[in-house]
């Protein structure tokens, strides 16, 4: 993107390969700082998302549960995502012992690895400065600091997508088949992490290769086909395993309507996420939309109102949008400056790659009408970081010319203004920071626009000031995330910003029901003494997961996450009871959002238990002994 006096840029790929003396120590410092940030106090949030934590615990007790991602060691039902991220957390827990720290350790290490892979991808195109900027932006993004310390699947998803992007950068250089196979392999395992979300980066990756790979069009298409085959094989083996494995000897696929992983991918985790509509195991409020039937878009926990401004709104804005305006400016400027470059220009190829990632993923997140949570935006963070790093490095390289200086100045000014807006949404939290960032950003923008090319001796000071102005605000939120415990199915960044889950804080519980049983020592003692396949059963995972984590006993979550899945059926549950495989049934006044676990087989099972067994009060919780009499 370097600009000459009278022509748009051409690139010098060889420049990106030269190593400077400060590169290695700077990279090591960045990785060390990231490790400290992500590992500090790791485990302070306890089990984080108890839904996935219970599945990790189950995997440490039963290898079949590990393979399929079962919610309980008795293998009644899986979580509503593929198990790839659970595989790593379970292996860590089996190796070091099951605890909150050992469960979250792979997540934090994947965060450090993600920063390293992004550095390598950006450096390969625009040099070490671009790599360091990109890596620092990713590390300091609040939602990254949140999810790389959490047990949702997103940490592994981001790492695998970054591996795919790096492999594509290498494939574009030589059209190498091995690199394209790696692209497909990484995307295939990303599918086994979070299903169709993994494919949102594919248009950007494919476009960059089609435009810039140094071979003929037919060969480019053929290489992409090789990558597609690799992806299908990498994801398809597990799909085939699930379909071929006898359903009677594996857990039900949570979230699906027909016990099928493919239906889960296309339905609940696919079309229904984008178009909305109910799902058997849906984790959104009733009504299908992100805000539910009443007050759609009003609940911060579900992303706010769909539309072009969603990524900047009160729900998602502080997660990953701090440098999003700068990234979009850098992308537009870069594409314009490289419009006359050779077809194989590496900078333009990377802009297409990361820009395609950002635009497609951002558009889907902005307009999808199904369940979405603010933390999903962690998938945007690598693209934002890469575009900022490449645009800043290339513009700085051409700072003797007005156009790149203006690009840098506008990026800096917009970043300062947007940080002020985001910080002003929590005006009582560190109130001086928003003014400091705004003023420093404006000063740096002015210097960049009119004088940086004449100020060689203070260039380093300008760079440091720009880094402070651009990263101080998101870093402050990232540090806040590290310093404050986070829990629940949809944790959010920064100071408290309102209700999280149907009137409860994220991760909160209402008293009574299974949620109350988790903290009921009498119920805990009761299920610890049971020696059945399932010590107890209750409706939905809320409370069931917590009780399992507290006791180590196998607790059946009837209906999966929300209690809405058709598993087990009434006939299956009756057979389990007749065979002595379930000891207790824990009554429920529902410890989750209104509408969860109502109707379907959960209601049928509850009615059958109430009609055929005598309730007893155990520490204030209603419990039925299914083996009495």
From TrEMBL:
Protein origin, superkingdom: Bacteria
Name of a matching Pfam family: YkcB_C
Primary location class: membrane
Tagged with keyword Transmembrane: yes
Keywords: Cell membrane, Glycosyltransferase, Membrane, Transferase, Transmembrane, Transmembrane helix
Gene Ontology molecular function: pentosyltransferase activity
UniProt subcellular location: Cell membrane
Region: Disordered, residue numbers: 499-519
Domain Putative mannosyltransferase YkcA/B-like C-terminal per the UniProt entry, residue ranges: 531-612
Chain segments annotated as coiled-coil in the UniProt record: none
UniProt keyword ATP-binding, yes or no: no
One annotated Gene Ontology cellular component of this protein: plasma membrane
Biased composition (Gly residues): 499-516
Transmembrane segments: 26-43, 95-122, 129-148, 154-169, 176-192, 198-217, 224-242, 320-337, 349-368, 374-393, 405-423, 429-451, 458-480
Membrane topology: Multi-pass membrane protein
The Glycosyltransferase RgtA/B/C/D-like domain, residue ranges: 80-235
GO biological process, one term: lipopolysaccharide biosynthetic process
PANTHER family referenced in this protein's UniProt entry, alphabetically: MANNOSYLTRANSFERASE YKCB-RELATED, UNDECAPRENYL PHOSPHATE-ALPHA-4-AMINO-4-DEOXY-L-ARABINOSE ARABINOSYL TRANSFERASE
Name of the protein described by the UniProt record: Glycosyl transferase
Lineage, top ranks: Bacteria, Bacillati, Actinomycetota, Actinomycetes, Mycobacteriales
């Amino acid at each position: 993107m370097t600009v000459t006096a009278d022509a748009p840029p051409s690139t010098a790929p060889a420049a990106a390969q030269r190593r400077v003396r400060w590169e290695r120590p700077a990279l090591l410092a960045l990785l060390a700082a990231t490790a400290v940030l992500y590992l500090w106090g790791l485990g302070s949030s306890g089990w984080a998302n108890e839904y996935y934590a219970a599945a990790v615990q189950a995997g440490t007790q039963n290898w079949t549960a590990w393979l399929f991602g079962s919610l309980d060691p008795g293998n009644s039902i899986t979580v509503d995502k593929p198990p790839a991220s659970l595989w790593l957390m379970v292996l860590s827990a089996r190796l070091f012992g099951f605890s909150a720290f050992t469960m979250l350790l792979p997540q934090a290490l994947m965060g450090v690895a993600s920063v390293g892979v992004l550095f390598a991808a950006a450096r390969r195109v625009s040099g070490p400065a671009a790599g360091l900027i990109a890596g620092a932006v990713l590390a300091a993004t609040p939602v990254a600091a949140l999810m790389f310390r959490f047990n949702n699947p997103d940490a592994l998803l981001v790492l695998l997508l970054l591996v795919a992007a790096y492999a594509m950068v290498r494939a574009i250089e030589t059209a190498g088949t091995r690199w394209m196979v790696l692209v497909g392999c990484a995307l295939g395992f990303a599918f086994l992490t979070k299903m169709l979300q993994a494919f949102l980066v594919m248009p950007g990756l494919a476009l960059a290769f089609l435009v810039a790979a140094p071979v003929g069009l037919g060969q480019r298409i053929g290489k992409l086909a090789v990558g597609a085959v690799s992806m299908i094989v990498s994801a398809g083996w597990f799909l085939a395993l699930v379909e071929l494995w006898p359903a009677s000897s594996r857990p039900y696929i949570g979230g699906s309507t027909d016990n099928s992983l493919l239906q889960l991918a296309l339905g609940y985790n696919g079309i229904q996420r984008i178009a909305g509509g109910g799902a058997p195991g849906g984790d959104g409020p009733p009504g299908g939309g992100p805000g539910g039937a009443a007050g759609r878009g009003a609940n911060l926990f579900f992303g706010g109102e769909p539309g072009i401004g969603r990524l900047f709104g009160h729900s998602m804005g502080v997660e990953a949008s701090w440098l999003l305006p700068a990234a979009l400016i850098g992308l537009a400027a870069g594409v314009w400056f490289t419009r006359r470059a050779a077809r194989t220009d590496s900078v333009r190829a990377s802009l297409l790659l990361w820009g395609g990632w950002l635009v497609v993923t951002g558009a889907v997140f902005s307009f999808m009408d199904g369940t979405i949570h603010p933390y999903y935006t962690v998938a945007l963070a690598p693209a934002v970081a890469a575009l900022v790093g490449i645009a800043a490095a290339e513009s700085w390289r051409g700072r003797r010319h007005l156009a790149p200086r203006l690009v840098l100045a506008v990026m800096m000014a917009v970043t300062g203004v947007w940080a002020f807006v985001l910080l002003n949404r929590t005006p009582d939290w560190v109130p001086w920071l928003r003014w400091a960032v705004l003023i420093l950003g404006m000063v740096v923008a002015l210097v960049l626009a009119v004088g940086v090319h004449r100020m060689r001796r203070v260039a380093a000071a300008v760079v440091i000031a720009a880094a402070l102005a651009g990263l101080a605000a998101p870093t402050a939120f990232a540090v806040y995330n590290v310093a404050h415990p986070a829990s629940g199915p949809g944790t959010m960044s920064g100071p408290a910003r309102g209700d999280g889950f149907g009137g409860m804080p994220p991760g909160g519980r209402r008293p009574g029901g299974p949620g109350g049983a988790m903290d009921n020592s009498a119920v805990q003692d009761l299920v610890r003494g049971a020696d059945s396949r399932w010590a107890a059963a209750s409706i939905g995972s809320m409370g069931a997961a917590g009780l399992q984590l507290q006791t180590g006993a196998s607790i059946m979550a009837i209906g999966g996450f929300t209690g809405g899945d058709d598993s087990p059926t009434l006939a299956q549950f009756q057979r389990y009871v007749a065979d002595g495989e379930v000891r207790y049934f824990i009554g429920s006044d529902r410890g989750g959002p209104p509408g969860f676990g109502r109707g379907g087989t959960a209601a049928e099972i509850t009615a059958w238990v109430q009609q055929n067994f005598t309730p007893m009060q155990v520490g204030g919780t209603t419990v039925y002994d299914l083996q009495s009499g």
